[in-house]
Amino acid sequence: MDVKVLKEYQRWLHNPSLNQQEKQELENIKNDESAINDAFYRNLAFGTAGLRGVLGMGTNRMNFYTIKKTTQGLANFLNKKYQKASVAIAYDSRLFSTEFAEIAAKVLSSNGIKAYIYNVLKPTPVLSYTVRYLHCQAGIMITASHNPSIYNGYKVYGDDGCQISGDFADAVSREIDALDIFEDIKYDDDSLVESVKEEVYQAFLQSTMKKSLLDKSVSRDIKIAYTPLNGTGRYPVQDILKLDGFNFVKVVKEQEEPDGYFTTCKYPNPEIRETLNLGVKLLNDIDGDILIATDPDCDRVALVSKDKDGLHYYTGNETGMLIFDYVYHTLKTRKLLPEHPVLVKTIVSTDLMNVICDKLGVECVDVLTGFKYIGEVIANLEKQGRENDYLLGFEESCGYLTNTEVRDKDAVNASMLIAEMVAFNKANGKTVYQRAQEIYDEYGHYQTLTDSFEFPGQTGKEKMDNLMKYFRENDVQFPLTGLKQKNDYLLSIAKNEEGEKEIKLPKSNVLKYLFKNGTTMTIRPSGTEPKIKIYYCSQNSQDIVQLREFIKEFIK
């Protein structure tokens, strides 16, 4: 074991700041070099997604000490940049989320920064809205989104309500790195901590309602099963559906109350079909029209519909396609469609939307993975006086947004639009599934699929780095013939037979392969989990099968 790692472990073990339970946790691993190394081989990395990691003791863990140090670094940055700063704080249902939020508020207050904190669970989109509503200089959301229960996280937002940029993150990271985790923390004053008033949440709901598009004459008589997956969506989703006139909403009882252990599902991620089992059971029990499922911090939403043909599960891409279809055609019918409409999506989201937008005369803006990039496009449109040109932003991982007063994916907004979309199609004699098939018939039967490969721990990170390096530096012989182009977003180069051209996006460790028959494959390491993710999109299912088999064997 590295001497520095062991020395830091011993420093923690014998530090008088620790309570008995914390010391015991460290004592329990004293004979386990692997566990000590994993907990202390690095400081938990702070980036544009903030912090995210496994709960526990150590520098590479989410705990009271890493939260204090991170918040002290943020406070130092804010105090250097602003004469007077304030920060909004919210938290989800995860283990220690409440405590982490309260610790962050006290550190900020001890550094002379006003801390507005919610006294009940609130979703990520509410936090984004609150930063803008209260004119704060930053925001903190305590959440690990859809990760398993052993994780928690700390997202940081700028004054625009977006997750922070690379420059912001780098500056805060430098401040954090300059601190000693036990010696340099101010934590003695909570006089500047204030609870966020109820009026802010009510303003968020009214802001969301402004994006309602369904005519009042259209019946809202659909049956909705809903699960918040033991997270923050329980009240906001029901509140917005009730405000919009959807009165038949039944909640999965086992997943209604907050539960940081997520005992009813191993992965509280609505993208995973098994996670929806209890929701689907309720959908069948009530003979409902749809199931809506939101993740713990209520920024992602999944859709399942039920009709005479049975159950239909929709990918994040398909739900985005359906929401866009509803928004576009409703605005057009009501003569409210802007002259230069814009859709924003991530580069790993379905290529079908590029085809649809091209035929409809909608500008399709592709951005890097991360909803902050969608938020940046909204901000740029706003600066140009074109805010109303924005129709929808979405990413394949079940994140959607039409409300420009929020700058992160918003499952409250999306749940309302999904319910309206279902009611609209039902009023026109169509099921959601039928409308999806009509879209495919008109524009092409594009299929998408995502694979994830886990690489835990220090050795896992090294393996991921080596894999990305190999794909970047070598001409890999894929089973599909006719590679048209290779996009390297880290080097900002798109390379094809005609040469190279610049990719005008921020640098990111992502590779995208475009084949001559239209099939695409994108490879990227996850920014929040120890995983490499592979995204496939094709009109030929056999292409996806071949590529998946090749990648699985290659990674072995």
Protein architecture, described:
This protein is an alpha/beta fold and 556 residues long. The chain has 17 helices and 22 strands. A hairpin with a 6-residue loop joins strand 9 and strand 10. The radius of gyration is 24 Å and the shape is globular. The model has no long low-confidence stretch (mean pLDDT 96).
Strand-helix topology:
Blueprint: H1 3-13, H2 20-27, H3 33-40, E1 51-54, H4 64-81, E2 86-91, H5 97-110, E3 114-117, H6 124-133, E4 138-142, E5 151-158, H7 166-177, E6 193-195, H8 198-209, E7 224-227, H9 234-243, E8 249-251, H10 277-285, E9 290-294, E10 301-307, E11 310-313, H11 316-333, E12 342-346, H12 352-360, E13 363-367, H13 371-383, E14 390-395, E15 399-401, H14 411-427, H15 432-443, E16 447-454, H16 457-473, E17 483-488, E18 493-496, E19 499-502, E20 511-515, E21 520-525, E22 531-538, H17 541-555
Parallel strand pairs: 2-3, 2-4, 3-6, 7-8, 7-9, 12-13, 12-14
Antiparallel strand pairs: 1-5, 4-5, 9-10, 10-11, 14-15, 16-22, 17-18, 17-20, 18-19, 20-21, 21-22
Which percent band covers the strand fraction?
15-25%
Provide the structure class.
alpha/beta
The span between the termini is 27 Å
What would the average pLDDT be, to the nearest integer?
Answer: 96
Q: Could you give a short account of the major beta sheet?
A: 7 strands, antiparallel
Number-wise, the strands total 22
Shape: globular
What is the number of helices?
17
Unreliable residue stretches: none
> What is the share of helical residues?
25-40%
